[in-house]
Structures are given as C-alpha cells and as structure tokens.
Amino acid sequence: MTQNTMRLTVNGKAYDVDAAPDTALLYVLRNDLVLNGPKYGCGLGECGACAVLIDGVAARSCVIPIEGCAGRDIVTLEGLGTREHPDPVQQAFISEQAAQCGYCLNGMIITTKALLLRSPHPTEDEVLEALRHHLCRCGAHIEIMRAAMRAAGHVVEAQT
Amino acid sequence: MTGPDTTEHRERLQGSLSVVRPASPVEAVKFETFIKITADGSVTAYNGHVDLGTGIRTALGQIVAEELDVSFARVVVVLGDTALVPNQGATIASETIQITAVPLRKAAAQARQFLVARAAERLELPIEDFVIEDGLIRGKDNRSVSYGELIAGETIRLELADDVPVKAVSAYNIVGQSIPRVDLPAKATGELVYVHDVRVSGMLHGRVVRPPYAGVDAGDFIGNSLIAVDEASVRDIPGLVAVVRIGDFVGVVAEREENAIKAAAQLKVSWKPVPTLPDLKDIETALRANPSTPRTLINKGDVDAAIAAAAKPMPRTYIWPYQMHASIGPSCAVADYQDDHTRVWSGTQNPHHLRTDLARLIHRREAEIEVIRLEAAGCYGRNCADDVSADAVLLSRAVGRPVRVQLTREQEHAWEPKGTAQLMDVDGGLNADGSVAGYDFATRYPSNGAPTLALLLTGAVPHTPAIFEMGDRTAIPPYDYENLRVVANDMPPIARASWLRGVSALPNTFAHESWIDECASEAGVDPIEYRLRYLKDPRAIDLVNAVAERAGWKPRPVRPEREAEGDIVRGRGFAYALYVHSKFPGYGAAWSAWIADVAVNKATGDVSVTRVVAGQDSGLMINPDGVRHQIHGNVIQSTSRALMEEVSFDRTSVTAREWGAYPIIKFPEVPDIDVLMLPRQDQPPLGVGESASVPSAAAIANAIYDATGVRFRELPFTPERILRGLRGEELAAHQALPPPESRPDLSRWQNPFAGRRGVFATAAALCAAAIGIGAAVLPWRAIAPIARPDASVYSAATIARGQQLAALGDCAVCHTSVNGLLNAGGRPLQTPFGTIYATNITPDVETGIGAWSYPAFERAMREGIHRDGRHLYPAFPYPHFAKTTDADMQALYAYLMAQAPVRAETPQNVIAFPFNLRPLMAGWNALFHQPTVFQPDPAKSEIWNRGAYLVEGLGHCSACHSPRNALGAEKANAYLAGGFAEGWEAPALTSLSQAPIPWSEDELYAYLRTGESRFHGVAAGPMAPVVKELATIPDSDIRAMAVYLASFNEVSMDRAAQEALAARLESSTGTRASAASGVGARIYQGACAVCHEVGGAPLFGSRPSLALNSNLHSTAPDNLIQVILHGIAKPATTDLGYMPAFKDSLTDGQIAELATYLRRQFAPDKPAWTDVQAAISRIRQE
C-alpha cells in the first residue's frame, strides 16, 4: 500500500489500486482492472461510451476521478453478465443484433440497465430520453431502440 | 479407434488442405492463403479486407460454409493480419462482398471439388451420388468419409484457379439466411478485444502532441514548424519514460496512461506561426479559388448549343461542406518495435497499405513488419487509424518497449482526414416542352489520400500536396440526357481530406437529384414520372416504381401549397442513385432510392426527417438482416450529415473538437425507416455498405422544397440556414434582450458590526496612517520566540474544537498549496496589489509558527501583526478573526500547535510599491480595522447572533462576498453585496443577489451543508473547499449561519412558492421544444445538456438547473466561464459529481457563443453580457 492506494469495489470485488486520486475511473477500470467494457470516447462525458453503474446509477467514468468512487459500488458491462450467462439486457441487445461496430454498445446497455433499475416498465419516450446522450455513429439506433424496448418488456414486432 | 490424445491422432491433425496463390516478392511467405481446412475438420477463411463493423466477418463465413458444405459454426474467418491474409487492398468502396469475396468463394469451391473427387476415389462411388453434410461426404450406400479424414496427415496445397464451378444459387442453404452476427455476444459482454483493448506485456502508454496547424496536411510548413520542446516542463510527471521529437512529430511515453495524458497536456512546445487558411466559412469561394485540372468524363451531343438554345436556362450551384467520419472511438494502436519483426496492432482499414507506409517510416522491409488488424470503432472511410499506428511505431522505437497510443477526442476530430467539401456547378436548361435540353456538370473535389501523418510530420514524404482523382464517383448522372458533359476538376486539398462513406458520389448525387427535381417542377411534371422519362436501366426503373408504391407516392405535377399545422409544414421528396465507385469509370454497387418525409418548423427553421422509405436492389443478399442494418445505418448517418454536420474552421485550423461543435444525430431525431429490399437472389451480390447514403441529401432537400416551396442547395440544413432561406437573406434575429441595466446600487445593506466613522474618525485614521509610515523606521517590537509548546497540555476536546474552528476559518484552504502538505503554506494568493504567499502555519519552529507564543498568535489573529513585529496583509482576514472569543482563539492555537510540524519555507511576496511598505498597514488598520471581540446584538435572537459570530468571525464570509474599496478594505455599506476572489465572483448573499429565486434560510443551509442548493446551484471554484471544510461544523452552527445570512434577504418566499417559480422558470427556458439554432445552442446540446437539462435521464452526481443558477443571472460572466474552462474537479462532496474542463476542447469563440446562448436561454430577462470573449481570454490567462 502506498500513499496513493485506493480501494474500489467493482463488480462485487474489492480492489486496491495504486493510482493518483484524480485519475479518471475509466483508466483504472481499463488498465488496472483489465476491463474492456467501458470505452474511451470523448473524455468529456458527452458520448456515453465509458458508462458504468455507480451505486446503480449510470455514470460517465471518463470524468469521475477514483477519489469520488471510494465506498461506492461500481458495476461494468462485465459485471452484468457473460457470453454464457448474459444479463437480460445484454441478451436483448444480442437478440436484436443491436450493434454494428459495437463501440458504443457498452454505454447503450449500461444506460438501459440503469433505466430499468429505476423504472422497470419505461415507455418508449423514456427509453429515447435515457439514450439521448449516447452517441452511435454506425446508425444502429433502430436496433438499439428495439433491444432496449425488448429488455423493458415490450413486444417488438419482427421487421419485414 | 484412436483416442484424441494418442500420438497417431495428433499426427493426423497436422495435415491440411490450403487454397493459395503466389505471394508478392515483398512478402516473407511464398503463398497467400484463402482457405485452409485442417485434418480436424476446422475451416479457416482468409480475406484481405477487414470488418469495419458492417458484419462482413459473418457474411464471408456464410459464403465459405455454403460453398464448402460445412456448417457455419465450423468456419473461422481471419481478416486483415498482414502475415496471414492475402493482400486485397483497402476495405473501401463497399467491395468486400462484391469483389474480394469472389476469390474466397472460388477457393472454397475448389477445395470442395478436390475433396469430393478424392472421396469418389476413396469410396469408389460416383460424385453425383454424394450427399455432403457439414463436411461429411456420404454415398448412397451410406458409407461416408469426412474432409478431415480425406486430408489426414497430408499437406495439400492447391493454387487458386479461376474456372472452378461454384454452387447454383438455387442450392443455397446458408447464404441468404439472416445468420446472427458472430461478434455481437462478445461485444455485448465486454469480451471482445478491440484494438483499444490490446495489452502487450511490458506495454507503456503514449500520447502525441500535434502541431497547431490542426487538420491541415499540405504546405511547406508541414514537418518544419516546431521550434522547441521544453522537457523540463514535464519533469514532475510520475513514471514519465520519454519525450520524443522527430521533425514536427512530438510524443510522450509514460508507465501509466493518466500520466501520459498529463504529460501531453503539460508539455511546453513552441511552434512557428501557422499560415492562414482560405476562409472555409465560404466554401464556394475557397473551392473556386483552389487551382484545378479539368478532366472530362463524358461529352455527348452538343451541350453548349443545346443549352444556348434552351427555353429555360437552369444554371445551379450546389455546395457540400466538410464533414467528419466522426468515429465514436478515437483511434488507437499498439506497436512493438523490434529490429527484425515489428508488430503493430491496428484498427486500420488497409493493413497492407499501412505496412507499406510503416516500412517507409522506419526504413524497414515490409516483410519485417506485421500489421495485426483488430476491430475498432466504425470508421466509414479513412480516419486516424493509420496515423496512430505510425505514432505508436515511432514511440515504441524510441523507448524500446511496446507502446499503446490513444488519440484524444480533440485530436481525432481535428486531424481525421475529412470528407471533403465539394462544389457542384450545373449549367443546363429546359426546352419549351419541359424536356432537358442539356446538362453540363462540373464538380470540384479538393482531396488527396491524406498521407499517414507521421510520414509528413517527420519529413519521410514530401509535403507537396498530391491530387487524388476521386471527385468522379457517380459524377455521371443516371439519366440519359441527350446532351451531356461531365467534368471533374481535380484539385489539391485545402484541409486534410480523404474518402468518407459515399465519397464524392453523395455530393454529386445531391446535385443531380436536386437539379432534376427542379426541372420537374419547372416542367410541371411529377418528379418521379419526370425521372422515369430519362431512366433506362430496367433494375433502376423497377426499384423506383417499387419504392413509390411502398411509400404510397401521390403524383404531383405541380407542388401543392402545403397546409401548415401551426408552425409545421410537411413535405415529401424523392431521390435515386446507383452508387458508381472506384477508379473511373468504376462500377455500380447496390441501387438505392429514397422517399423522405420531413416536417419543417417555419418559426424555428427546424427540419425533422420523420420517415424514410429506403428501397434497395442489392442483388443476392448473403445475409438479409445484415443488409437491412446497413440500410438503416446509411439512412441514419446520412440524415445526420444532411441535417446538422459541418466542420468548423478558423483561419488556421479545425475548431470542431468535440461533439457539441460537431453534433451528430441523437436518438429522438432518428426517422422511422421502412426498408424495401428487392428480391434479387438470382443476381450477383453487390456492395451495400454505402449505397443507401447516396440519395439522402437530395431526397431531404426535395422534401423541404415540397414542404416550403424554397430550394436549398447547400448543406447542412440547419435551422439558421432554413430560416434564412424562408425569410430571404435577412438573418433571423434572435429575440432581442432587454437593454443593459445600469450598475446596481450595492449600498443596500450595512454591515451590522461595522462601526460608524465620522469625519473626525477618518482624520484620526489618517494621522495614524502617518504615524504608521513614521513607524517604518522604528520596527515593531517582536514578541520573543519560544520553544515549541507542548500540545499535550491541551485536552483532546479542546484540540478537536480547534480543528473545527480551523475548518470554519478555512485555514487550510489558503495555507495549503496545490498537492502540498496541509497548512504548510506556499499557496499564492493573487490580490490587486500583488501576489501574497500564504505562510506555513504548522508548528515548525523555523519556517512555521512553532516559536509563536499564544500572545504572539493572538496578536496576529486580532491585529494582523507577525510575531517578529511585521504587519501582515489583510489578505489574511484578521479583521474578521479579531472577533473570535478568547476561548475559541485558544482552542484554535491548541489545534495548530498539535499538528505535525512541516518544514517549508514560504516564498517571498511580490507586492507593488507602495503596498510593499508593510508599516503602511498600521494606517490601514486605523482606517478599517476594529480589533474587538464579537459583541452580540441584544435586539436579535440568540441563533442570529450565533450565526453572526460564525459568519463575521472565523467564517469571514464577507471577506470574499463584500466588495472592497480602492485600498482593499471591505465596503461596510455594501455588506455581502458581492465581490471577487481568485478570479471567481463571490455573489451577493443579500437581497442584491441576481439569482431568480431569493436566498432563503433553508437554501442557505442546504448549500452550506451539502454544497448544493436546488434553487441556486453547486459550490464551485473557491467555494467548493469552503463547503468541504464546513463538513465538520455541527448542523446547529450551519443553521445559525443560514439564519444570519437569510436576514439580509427581506423577500421571503415559502418552499411552495419557490418550487412553483422554479418550475415556471425551468419550463419557460427548457430547450427540448426549440431547435438547436446556432453554435452556442448546439454546443449546449452536445456538451452540457447531458448533465444539465431539466428532466434528463439521471446520471451520477447532481443536475444543476441552469435556469435557476446564480451564475447565469449574474452581471458578470466570470463564474460561468471559469466553470466551463476548468470544470469542477474538486467538488464540495463527491455526491455532487464532477464537471469536466472544456478549456482544451472548446475555442474562446465557441465558449463565447455558448456563454451568450446560455445567458439568453436561461436568464432571458437579463441583459446580454458584453465583451464575453475578452473575459474568456482574460480568465484563460489567469
């Protein structure tokens, strides 16, 4: 333990991290904890690629230093589920083929999860609002919306 | 039976069947492999193209599985590793399925043919009798043999043949099925390794520092603009490994990524002045002035004569802006430089071409370099993926270890080779019967291939601009005009530019399809019917008719005047294109046609694309869902480009460096999309990666014309452009603001504890001042130093009480330097009179206050006199501390003496004459200081008096929140009327507050306790640490402070009234209903709204409401500018969350636009701030 050691709880496990307290959570998750889910997109909290859950609320890990995360419960995409046992939200995104390059996918899934945690049966407008500040450049919006609606328990009609 | 673990089994597994072709001499290997089947029956397919997120990995696997008659799951597709895959050129022009899959398919068929023939021999059965299922060949007699068994231990290599029969489409089982993409389960669970996720043992982190000519790559200044790199400027960065400089290439390498980021931000680099760019706000002028070489693509009939004779001349000009690829993930690469084998993990779209560039960069043979392609963020053309790969190689070579380089968002935005601006001139005309007399089309396309940046920056390739002949894509219109001439004016780049989805075809089609729509309108013919008169391609005609039918197109020979629903008018537009790409004359990808429905708000200029019917003839669709998703993606991305995308420049560089300044479409703006895919499974497969983008802009422009009767010939269709078009050139004036108000009278409240001074008192004070000057020659008597007192004489309770008082007094806030030890001093305080350094107040005997007796401490606190007799400056707020009771003073002393001593010399103050004459302070004290202990006001309540003691005493609130006079003393008659501290405004805390909702006791309490008031905002700047310090003060004292401060706000408003007013202010200033018109509004939507828009989805931290925020309603923009520039890195409590700093992402001009917009939007009853830009540059300097 050095002066900089900080304890973080990520995906249910405690980690002691040696990093300056002002280090953005994103870099610690990716480099120290070897988690690939959260992605660097803008460093300004604008695009949403870096989203994680902090105490069950969506958070942009590129703008939150680890000193703000002490004593909080952090969950990343990896903490939701695995290929073998995906979270229902992840499964909905896989079922709807809701990605092209998939770089934004982490944020889309995390935010949908956060929405469902606070509102288990959101309307379409609520889903749109939740995803508003998540950018997708490939134009997978239609599939992402279908996936989020499906995860929210709506019946999504097949496309013809 | 042979068990899987026996030697015999393992030997059998060594055999393989490959289909290959001879490799080029530059390769380290003799053969390029397309298909390899191993003895265990697994199939690997190799393709030189890469998956840019479009799903071709899955589609190629389907093609191979189909042709080989194996299950889809058996096939592994390897893409883009230069050591493994054939060199098939760059992944461009939607060619993978249409072109590069062809040899792969043949290779699979060839392998199958070989194996079937061998099976016939082995089983002695005729080929016609075989049934093949998942690589198992079965004869009619039910005997069978697998591919693996046929290969066994042999190494079989077949040279790829061109004349192998492939399977009939009618026999397809796998191709044509919507097989789910193989990559998505891993992507959805964080298990896929993107290039950003590559971790190599011993890997370091690099960042590059780019030159100031951001986004420009042609000119003699490229590669020789660097003057100096000051390595000392980053010496304090932990784990810094190297600063690398080669020509204009500058990079840093550190052990940890965050330290590489810090080093890149902190490194001082000086550059030569940057040459001026043409004014790219005026694309048309800039492109006309750019030198060009005409290249005639077609010249049919007698164009000049036909147009000269036309009854109705139709000359038109269409303008396309610079646009971005705008990949969501800035480019990243890892390189491991080794003398004989350098490996580069890259997100490139052209691994082999990149390898050639890298060989040139580091003077190595191509065979010594391996480019390993991993998935990256979608790129849609040439982004910075190659640049960053080369950067990583240079940094790895410099430090001798693997280095990962991640470009910043700002670098990707500024430097990515843009989709170029383009200018399309049409000369043409109609005959009297409405038919087209002639079409004379000229396009100007300034672009090169955007050479890999490190080559230019290091001087490895010359900076002379190359010219790429790429303006010719779909330059020939699809219509059979009798007199037709098309000229491509090839020209060098202005800004760095290369290909972006749809390349020049999208702009060219914008012109072709707008112009024919204009002609139809002139001729009084339905726009679709008019097109069909000139369209000869039967598949095109089928598609156009099918799309018209699907959308329920109603023929409209004359544009009907659209009935408005309120401010909204609706319209519908058509456009068609066959995307013809690749080197001229090129060839066609899929056919595409759009019918777009728009809603135009005539009051705001906002255009919404509500629905698109997108029809496509893709030939054989390998994976129909994959095709559908490509159509969706193209429709959404190109709608975004048409409506809102335009790169901004100043006169030296790209200024759009984040998503506010370069917005892309958001979920609520996405149109409904109805995809119509023509069943053409009997036709060869065509590229579908770009086609559906090509008709977009024209279809939307035609729909806007249908809605409004106004023709727009320049993109993007922003609200400002639409309003200008609807109202003529007259700019839609923003709602006028109220005139600037005169400076408010601050003398509303008198400090209740300031003594009144008459003429005599002032005269006496002036005398004292004179004595003070006199005293300069007679130094004050020092109080003798003592041995460091033993803190153990004080009780723990006293020390704890002292600690609270120290927190109330914010001792540590001023007496601790940034990243310094607590109370060890050294923090510079900027005052109007000079820089004063806070002293060391730890009990170190030599450098701190360890030698101070209590009387010396008390005298300093009450009279502002140092132990040695020098006067202290009132930046140290002793006029307030003097009010402290003896008991509290002793407790504070006890606490300070109980700290660990820290040896730290305090730097010399830098004070201008005459303020550097400390004895003058005696006069100052006589004028402004009353060294008396707090006396309660018997007329007031106990709690009020308690609050007054805390606020006026150690709390010293008015030291910042009251204005000061010319001599730096608080103005007693403008008590708490607002002041400035450390570049931040300390707003009025009285009824003079500019906040729209007056301060109340409860809100003051909430703010001081939690750092946030729902009706005012969060503590930031110098106030954040104040609230943080107050955390140890009991609720009752915070409440008392709130009671006292609230007494200077005579307007009382109960909670319900506050809530109602807040709701009214928030709803009247909400931005959801209005169009994002103007730069400021767009930056707000892209950068601020995510955390500040009322009603937005919850995010970690608070959501300060801008409509209520004191700073937006203040007479000074300073706090708003401060917080935009520097963010909130140290909030009062972590629950409040953090705000990023935008100083490196937004220009002064953009911040000025943003601040002006925020003021207008959220404080609409307040006058506009003046000189915002000057304030920004002043605050940046501070």
From TrEMBL, chain A:
Residues 4-80 form the 2Fe-2S ferredoxin-type domain. CDD domains: fer2. Signal peptide: none annotated. It comes from the Bacteria. The keyword Magnesium does not apply. InterPro entries: 2Fe-2S-bd (IPR002888), 2Fe-2S-bd_dom_sf (IPR036884), 2Fe-2S_ferredoxin-like_sf (IPR036010), 2Fe-2S_ferredoxin-type (IPR001041), 2Fe2S_fd_BS (IPR006058), Beta-grasp_dom_sf (IPR012675), Diverse_Oxidoreductases (IPR051452). Keywords: 2Fe-2S, Iron, Iron-sulfur, Metal-binding, Oxidoreductase. GO terms for molecular function: 2 iron, 2 sulfur cluster binding; metal ion binding; oxidoreductase activity. It holds the Pfam family Fer2. This is (2Fe-2S)-binding protein. It comes from Bradyrhizobium valentinum.
UniProtKB/TrEMBL annotation, chain B:
Keywords: Heme, Iron, Metal-binding. It holds the Pfam family Cytochrom_C. Coiled coil: none annotated. GO terms for molecular function: electron transfer activity; heme binding; metal ion binding; oxidoreductase activity. Residues 797-900, 942-1049, 1075-1162 form the Cytochrome c domain. The lineage of its organism: Bacteria, Pseudomonadati, Pseudomonadota, Alphaproteobacteria, Hyphomicrobiales. It comes from the Bacteria. This is Aldehyde dehydrogenase. SUPFAM superfamilies: CO dehydrogenase molybdoprotein N-domain-like, Cytochrome c, Molybdenum cofactor-binding domain. InterPro entries: Ald_Oxase/Xan_DH_a/b, Ald_Oxase/Xan_DH_a/b_sf, AldOxase/xan_DH_MoCoBD1, AldOxase/xan_DH_MoCoBD2, AldOxase/xan_DH_Mopterin-bd_sf, Cyt_c-like_dom, Cyt_c-like_dom_sf, N-heterocyclic_Hydroxylase. PANTHER family: ALDEHYDE DEHYDROGENASE, BLL3820 PROTEIN. PROSITE patterns: CYTC.
